Amino acid sequence: MPLNTARNPWIPFWQAAIGVFALGLWEWGARAGILDKFFFSRPSDVASRVWQWISGGSIWPHLAVTLLEALLAFSIGVVLGVLLGFALARAPTAALLLEPYIRMFNALPRVVLAPIFLLWFGLGIWSKVALGVTVVFFIVFFNTYRGVREVDPVIVNNARMLGASESQLIRHVLVPSALTWIFSSLHISIGFAMISVVVGEYLGSSKGVGYVISQAEGVFDTTGVFAGMTVLAAVVLILGAGVERLERWLLRWKPENSPQAGERDL
Amino acid sequence: MTPAAVSLEAVTARFAGAGGKEYTAVDGVTLHIAEGAFVSIVGPSGCGKSTLLNMAAGLLPPSGGTVRIFGDALRGINRRATCMFQQEALLPWKTVLDNVTLGLKLRQPGAGKRTEELGREWLKRVGLEDFGDRFPYQLSGGMRKRVAMAQNWIVGPDILLMDEPFSALDIHTRQRMEGEILSLWSGTNKTVLFVTHDLEEAIALSDEVLVLSAGPASRLVGRYPVDLPRPRNLIDIRTEPRFADLYRAIWTDLREEVLRSYAGPPSRPAGGPRQRP
Fold first, then answer.
1. Which residues constitute the domain of residue B207?
2. A–B: how many Cβ contacts below 8 A?
3. What is d(CA A172, CA B151) in angstroms, rounded to the nearest whole number?
4. Domain count along chain B
5. Is B169 in the same domain as B150?
6. pLDDT tens-digit series, residues A51-77
7. For chain A, which residues lie within 8 Å of any Cβ of chain B, measuring from their own Cβ?
8. pLDDT tens for residues A173-226?
């Protein structure tokens, strides 16, 4: 049976099999002494650490902080990105004037901003939120800008002929068109929001999953580092699946294989 | 005398062409279309047919000359007209019913219940009563054109502008759509301005066929009243002797222009003039 068909029932099975195989290899290598336990830990140790965190409840406050930061970064970034994207798309002269600066800021690796944000906003959640916002903002901004600019002129003309005023045009045509682009970038944005706040926590904080990882690293506790990564990966996976469902519902008017928003690096 | 529904008085359309040179798409065209008439404009591709239509729609202000709608000089969008485009113009994020009722909602927001009733009525008229909750992408090309038709007619425009609306359809769907347009139009006093490159379609549908010269700087080179009796049977009309006579007469004019457009003037910018958004 060919594997690459879309709804092959064996796909989840083989997906799981790959994971089990890789973890098994790792476990076996660590037990057989091929992989040094100090540097590589062991899947079973990592699993028991994660379980310990969850059952003992020690991870929840950290996870809650990280999620709060990511959510704030995500919401603020989306609002700012949509507003500015919309404004600049409707004001071509302003867009032309600001373009080099926007490109310049977008080219900055956000990690270098983290220490500055620490200075500006302190060790609390806001320095992480700020870092996340700078990432989410640009993704959403570019998608909104593109969405508004790339509205099919025929659709705009048709709506105008049917009697749309300028504000109705924005509501019925431009916003929905831009939303397509924003929604299709939502899961990228939420993933990046998570990543950037964790990076922020990692570089200086007293709470959060990034803090947990950096603490473990500080005492050469590789099991702790891997356990932190596992928790993070699981949360991002769950969030991503949720966002994807939301996206599918919001873009239900679109045929399959809609264009994906371009991914950007941190 | 009552004023013509659409009057173009010496209208000219110029665009910024390649290399800063101006490109004149339409040069000093004058035409008057009487209320209730079905008039087609034919011409070789790139001759500015759509430009004329966009000027009548108010989507493109003429660079020179005046557009009059029922005697009044047109400023901004032509509120008494709707336009059916060659390309897909439905809002893909709205359901079929919401697309059909769009114009009503835009023109009189808050008329909720009545709007929906009217929308369902029109869906029935174009044979899509079971498709109101679908999205446009779930429909065939012909069905989408029907939705566009209902979307245009529901607002009760006095003038219907059509820009090669059926050129993307296969020949059978196309003939059916032509028949549907005629049956919607007959008995109303609506004015139709129909742009096409298909001379047969133009003759079969119209009261009058206008021939536009090859671009750039297109002019009107001929006008032919079509005296075929109505109502017309679109399936058989093409085999009637009178139809063949008209076709031959108009084609002699048109042929020359088509040949001229093949020769291709060197000053034309690649891709032709773009319509301003």
1. 1-80+157-277
2. 74
3. 15
4. 2
5. no
6. 999 999 999 999 999 999 999 999 999
7. 152-165, 168, 172-173, 176-177, 179-180, 252-255
8. 998 888 878 877 787 888 899 999 999 999 888 899 999 999 999 999 999 999
